[in-house]
Amino acid sequence: MIKVDEIREIVEQKIIGSDKFIVDINVSDDNKISVIIDSDNSGISINDCVLISRAIEDEINRDDEDFELQVESAGLDRPLKMLRQYQKNINNDIDIVFTNGKKLSAKLTAAAAESIDIEYQEKVLLENKKRKQTVTKNETIRLADVKSAKIVVSFR
User: What architecture is domain 4-73?
Assistant: First the structure.
């Protein structure tokens, strides 16, 4: 059976010295290999995926191990998983689902190993006002309290 560490080592050797990084690697019991990669700046092209796919196929002997391989970019539709992904998306809008089920749309303003800082608008009833006013709130959220966070795609 193919091991995740074996795939990780092959991919790391291929992307060393670049701005690309591994987001996730999965190997199922029936040797279906899934590799998800991302980049700090340049994005992931089809060419990048092909190069990594070929590197894996060159290192694993199909006569010894039959496998199915899928190499893809992290994509905008996938939740953020790593600190590096949060850091590259500072100043972007994100949709957060908390472990308690609460949802929030906010601007990501900072990211650290254990937490993220966000900024969002909320309507609140202020003292001496008859109507709710929109106020900007800043908050630090523990990553342990985040179930998922996705980048909001904006076409404006």
Answer: 2-Layer Sandwich (3.30)
